[in-house]
């Protein structure tokens, strides 16, 4: 493959692998009794991979896929966490209780075997 075609192919493969990882994580949350109310929700500040319902509250989920759980976890940057917080604040602003809506931020790590590790409240309190 030529350079640009190879890069486009690799990008497409990564995009579809990311979609598959998000779908797998969504199914995991659904098995735990959480309805998925947002998938790749995009606000002015950025995108949130998944939003799940937790009783009256919400769970904002960032999905990271890599060869290992450790490598996936290392792909989360402070700047990215700030974008997710801003997007979540925008989403919460559309809820009946606004910022008073109970919420948490989880990170779902997916390794090359398709195994999932969910870290609840991974960002602590914003």
TrEMBL record:
Which Gene3D superfamilies does this chain map to?
Answer: 3.40.1350.10
- In terms of superkingdom, the source organism counts as Bacteria
Identify the SUPFAM superfamilies for this entry.
Restriction endonuclease-like
InterPro entries of this UniProt entry? Answer: Restrct_endonuc-II-like, tRNA_endonuc-like_dom_sf, UPF0102_YraN-like
Q: Which GO terms describe its molecular function?
A: nucleic acid binding
Under HAMAP family, the record lists: UPF0102 (MF_00048)
Q: Which family does it belong to?
A: Belongs to the UPF0102 family.
Q: What is this protein called?
A: UPF0102 protein DSW25_12725
What species is given as this protein's source?
Answer: Sulfitobacter donghicola DSW-25 = KCTC 12864 = JCM 14565
């Amino acid at each position: 493959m030529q350079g640009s075609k190879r890069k486009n192919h690799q990008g497409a493969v990564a995009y579809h692998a990311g979609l598959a990882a998000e779908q797998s994580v969504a199914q995991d949350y659904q098995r735990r009794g959480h309805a998925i109310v947002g998938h790749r929700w995009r606000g002015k500040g950025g995108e949130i991979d998944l939003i799940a319902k937790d009783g009256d509250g919400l769970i904002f989920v960032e999905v990271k896929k890599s060869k290992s759980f450790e490598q996936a976890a290392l792909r989360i940057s402070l700047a990215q966490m700030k974008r997710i917080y801003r997007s979540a604040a925008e989403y919460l602003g559309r809820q009946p209780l606004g910022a008073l809506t109970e919420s948490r931020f989880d990170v779902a790590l997916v390794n090359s075997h398709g195994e999932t590790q969910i870290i609840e409240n991974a960002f602590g309190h914003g």
